[in-house]
Amino acid sequence: MSIRANRFTHETAHAPEPERYEFRExxxxxxxxxxxxxxxxxxxxxxxxxxxxxxxxxxxxGGGARQNHSDDLPKEITAWLHIAEDxxxxxxxxxxxxGQNIRTSLAQSVADELRVPFETVxxxxxxxxxxxxxxxxxxxxxxxxxxxxxxxxxxxxxxxxLQAAANxxxxxxxxxxxxxxxxxxxxxxxSTTYADVARGKTLAQRIPDEDPVTPxxxxxxxxxxxxxxxxxxxxxxxxxxxxDLRPAGLMYGKVLRPPxxxxxxTECDITAAQxxxxxxxxxxxxxxxxxxxxxxxxxxxxxAIRAQWKEAPQPSSSDLFSYLKQNVDTSERSDLTQSxxxxxxxxxxxxxxDSTYTVAYIAHAPLEPRAAVAEWKDxxxxxxxxxxxxxxxxxxxxxAFHFAKENVRVIxxxxxxxxxxxxxxxxxxxxxxxxxxxxxxxxxxxxxxxEFTWAYFRPxxxxxxxxxxxxxxxxxxxxxxxxxxxxxxxxxxxxxANQHIEFHPVRSPLRQGSYRGLAATANHFARESHMDxxxxxxxxxxxxxRLKNISDPRLRDVxxxxxxxxxxxxxxxKPGQGFGIGGGIEKGGYVATCAEISTDDARGAIRVVxxxxxxxxxxxxxxxxxxxxxxGANIMGLxxxxxxxxxxxxxxxxxxxxxxxxVPRFRDVPEMEIVLMDRKDIPSAGAGETPLLGxxxxxxxxxxxxxxxxxxxxxxxxRA
Amino acid sequence: MAPPIELEINGQKYPVHSDPDTRxxxxxxxxxxxxxxxxxxxxxxxxxxxxxxxDSPRRSCQLxxxxxxxxxxxxxxLEKNGHLHPVQQAFLDLDAFQCAYCTSGMIISSVALxxxxxxxxxxxxxxxxxxxxxRCGTYPRIVDAIQKAAKSMEQQPR
Lengths: 720, 158
Known about the structure:
The complex is a heterodimer. By secondary structure, chain A is an alpha+beta fold. Helices cover 27% and strands 24% of the residues of chain A. Chain A contains 18 helices and 29 strands. Chain A has a 7-stranded mixed beta sheet, with helices on both faces. Chain A has a 6-stranded mixed beta sheet with strand order 14-22-21-20-15-29. In chain A, strands 4-3-2-1-8 form a 5-stranded mixed beta sheet, with helices on both faces. In chain A, strand 16 and strand 17 form a beta hairpin. The N terminus of chain A is likely disordered. In chain B, the strands form 2 sheets. Chain B has a 3-stranded antiparallel beta sheet with strand order 4-3-5, with helices on one face. Chain B has a two-stranded antiparallel ribbon with strand order 1-2. Chain B is globular and about 45 Å long. The mean pLDDT of chain B is 96. Classes of the chains: A alpha+beta, B alpha+beta. The interface between A and B is large, with 57 and 58 residues.
């Protein structure tokens, strides 16, 4: 399916290696229940599960050997489903809900495949005691990997129900129909409910190796625009985020932070703080914190701590990009893809274009800051926390407290967003450490300033491109170097015989990590800005120039669809108007975005007036949810494209507040149109990240169109 | 210990023991357990903590308890007898949220707007709501939800 012969190829069939900034980890789950425990816990009924590497395991054992009715459930279970005696369906997954609406869309897939009403399916998510191991909710993997697994589980459960009914009626399961939580025998008119079949049973079954699931063309519940499953709890304020939990005896925790990055503590006197009547103060290694019955008292305790720090020189944002170029980490491998010869390609070029692009560090700024509530009770530690990696958080807690993993439970309430920012266990560790000392549950909620300072950032980067193009618009050479920002989306989707594409790791001056879209935002910005420059170099329309160099039909489709809806090429009707286009392929999704901007010469302000995004992620599970994601991605992307950037000096973030760090608001929102390509013939890809990628280059290219000036830095209009 | 301050919240009287300097947000969430009102920034910049004081939207993270003299309405007070407020219903019907952490503040601000201006134009909505952040970027749906709520309140006044 791929047009490219390099290792950055975007395939939908195989799970890609997690990008280095996603913090990888091997699945080493030990399943805590045996079969009897399971039914004791969840009640009688029918349980079906999928194990990791099912196909492989079956191959090795000679094929076809099912492990039914075994008391030992296999390790590395990836998903399971329970049908209770009352017919209610519960599906379990280690994925978490962070606003991407996966709770709803996974439930749709389960209901669809099991043939039950959507309302009867409940998802249990992100609870290390109840749900199967999961590496984490990131990389747009929930829809392409978890939905099919849950479907296979649901299909197996349906077959099990059909078989049970067939046995009872002394007929063949093929002659029966399953629909609307009922099984009917058309020949005799007999009918029974799933609840009746499940009653009195304790049946556990592993999914068979071959059991086709319903093709997208026959979906009835998936593929529909269903509303957020528990929306009412959110509009009434009843939903309890981690930061809302108030277990009995709760204390509030605060942590003493260093004055600057890289500062080391030389002295710490906690005696004054310890004298406060209600505070519990902890000094353990480099951790200093306090818990008290109110947040104010905890803050007072922290203020009473006398600490001395030795600060270290730190780079500042004003010399960031030269710093990045000078601090390449040669101890880490670079990622390199090469084909042909850049020298040959450049020799054949009619035009050369070399440019350098930069992207700033930006913050996730999830509206719910990092939060955790920890409770030690009966030799067990329970932590509620908003994290994208509940199992990794559990493991970090077990390691930090020299505690068996089995005695640590991490629960993730549906969380006030994350955007890749909630991978690390910091708040969980802080709350657990204080709770152990306090002997009571402790809640940690980071302040907005802590969130902006002590979380991690989207990596900044420098990207250098050397390129050549023939007079007819054929790309002849493409040399691309990314310093620090990352390798996601670094490969070009355009056909070019001579390529050298390399990612260079750098010793980052700030703590950095995962972010919605990862480095694909930076790499698409650089590549698509550069493609625009090349189009102008050969006097071609930017869309025509791209189409000439694209052979992937799905990428052509999204570019042409976005252009058609936008009215590309558009005629300028007023001064300061400009139009731009950008797009690409990432994580199995195809995106193209057209943007119209207006500039005000006097102030240099940029306003994004109109945006059209076409997106293809294969078969669509929930069109309205998908539109919501694409719209949100464009609006969030607007911030990084136009004005978001961390400012830092002397190891301090100098804009760690919403009053100094501008994020998109109502007034920044352009007119927006979304074009969905529903490819029922192609497996669904994730959609939370990739729609963001076209915006920044489309806006940058529109600015060039309006002004004749190529802006090569993200953010494009920092003072706008 | 000082005698409790009496606060009227969502039509109910609460004795409150917090110090008068304590921010209303802390009182609501930590003392009274009304956690529907959210902390987002602590500087009145994001609107997640918005409550109604009388009919006016106020940032409860900035408001000392001692300055609250009029009745308070929080997100928990909008639903009446199992019926959602038209603004809540419109947010629900249009899926005008993603993570929904900003939703309480958005809904309360919207209610304040519609009290002041029963039929706001999109421009008026944007202007009024400018102080509320939705990091997930659901702004266009929120504008639509406010217009939908305005229509349904016009047809069926509460």
